[in-house]
Amino acid sequence: MAALCDHGNRMESASEGGKAVTADQLPGGIDLSDSAFWGWPAADRQAAFALLRAREQPPFFAEPESPFAQRGPGYFALVRHADVTEASRNPDVFCSSKGATSILDLPEEFNEYFGSMINMDDPRHARLRRIVSRAFTPRMIGKFEQDVARVAAQIVDDLVAGGPCDFVENVAARLPLTIICRMMGVPDSRYDMVLRNTNIILSGADPDFLSADIGEAVGQILTAGQELADLVTGLATTRASHPADDLVSSLVTANIDGEQLTSAELASFFILLVVAGNETTRTAISHALMLLTEHPAQRARLLDAFDDRIGGAVEEIVRYSSPVMFMRRTLTRDYTMNGHAYREGDKAVLFYWSANRDETVFTDPAEFDITRTPNPHVGFGAAGPHFCLGAHLARREITVMLRELLGRIPEVSAAGPPDRLLSSFINGIKRLPCAF
C-alpha cells in the first residue's frame, strides 16, 4: 500500500466502534486510494478520517501504482468539509481538466471520453453545460417525474409478485436504469447492454466485472465505452431526421447562440449520464434499505410522517452513503487555503465521504438521523460549477421509490450483509438480499 506521509507527526488513537484505528496502524496501513481501505467497517473508516481531519495540515499520500498510468508525485487529501467546499467554489484554482475521476494522470482523451464535462474547465465546461442544461426543459423534467412514479409502481408490483430477492438487481438498479434509458429514448431491448457496460466502466478493481489481466481489463473498458457511444450516435442519426419526445432529440437539436453538441460530445455526455445517473442513484437506494433496516427507530419516524420527513431522509441517506467518495482537482497556481500553502501542479483529492462526517459541521456525524437539520452534505458535490447536474432527478427517484416501497411493503428489510463493490471511487453495493 502507499503510505501516509505524516512528516514526523504522530496521531493519537481513535475509534467509533469496531476495532481501534491507531497512529501506529495509520502510516503504513492506510491508503485512501485502495479499495481494501474502503472495505473496512464503516466505524473504522470514520475513525481513520477523524484522525486525518484532526491534523493541522492536510495529509499527503503517495499515489497508487497502476499499469494504466505513470505514478505521480502524490496528492493532498482534502478531508475537511471546509476544504472540500472551498476547493469546489474555486475551479479557476482547483481545476478538473487534468482529471477529476482518477488520482492518476490518464490521457486527456480518456478523461473526456469517459467523464465528459466532469473532466473539463471553463470555458469548455460552461459551453457544454449550457447546451445540455437547455435540453432539460420544465416540460421534459415533468415527463421524467411522471415516468418515475409509473416505473416505481411497476417495480413494487413485480417485487410483491416475485417475493424476497436481490434488492439491488430487482429494485435499486432497475429504477434509475429504466428512467435514464427512457429519457434518452433507448429501446427496452438495449437495457441489459447499458447496465452491463456501466458496471464495467465503474467497476474499480472488482473481479466480478473486470478481468485480472490488465490487457483484457483495458479492452473491456474501451469496448464498454464504444458500445455506449455507438448506441447514442446511432440514435442521434435517427433523431436528426425523425425527432421524438426524448432527450437525445433535444440534445441533437439544441442550438445555443449557434452552438451545438458535436458527435463526440454527445457520445461522451451520454456515457456520463448513463453511468452517473444509473450508478449513484442505485447506490443511494441500496443504502437506503440497509440503513432503514439497521436503524428501525428511524424507519418508524419516517413511516409515522412520511410526507413531512422524506425530504430530510433522502438528504441524510445521500450524506451517510456518499455514493461518490471522491473527486480530484489540480492546482493551477500557488494558493493558500485554510492555513495551508499549496503549489501550482499539486493534486488535491476531495473526499466527500470524510467531509460528510466532519464533526465541526455535523453533530454526531456517525449517527443516521433523518431529521438532521441543517444538513449541508456534499453527497452531490459541493456548490460550484461541477455540482451534480442530475441531483434533482436523483432526489426525485429516491423519494418516489421509498414512497412506493414503504407505502406498500412497510416491513421490507435487508435480509443479510451487503456484497460491496470493491472500489475506492463508488460506495457501491452489488447485491443485497431483501425480505418481507
Annotation keywords:
6-stranded mixed β-sheet, alpha+beta, single chain, two-stranded antiparallel ribbon, 17 helices, 436 residues
Please give a structural write-up:
The strands form four sheets. The protein has a six-stranded mixed sheet. A two-stranded antiparallel sheet has the order 6-7. The chain is an alpha+beta fold and 436 residues long. Helices cover 50% and strands 8% of the residues. The chain is built from 17 helices and twelve strands.
Largest sheet: 6 strands, mixed
| Biggest sheet: strand arrangement | 1-2-3-8-5-4
Count of DSSP strands: 12
Count of alpha and pi helical runs: 17
Order of helices and strands: EHHHEEHEHHHHHHHHHHHEEEEHHEEEE
Distance between the termini: 42 Å
Short overview:
By secondary structure, this protein is an alpha+beta fold. It has helices at residues 25-29, 35-38, 42-53, 81-89, 108-115, 124-135, 138-162, 167-172, 174-184, 191-201, 214-241, 247-253, 263-294, 296-304, 306-321, 352-355, 391-408, and strands at 4-5, 60-61, 75-78, 94-95, 326-331, 335-337, 340-342, 347-351, 413-414, 419-420, 429-431, 434-435.
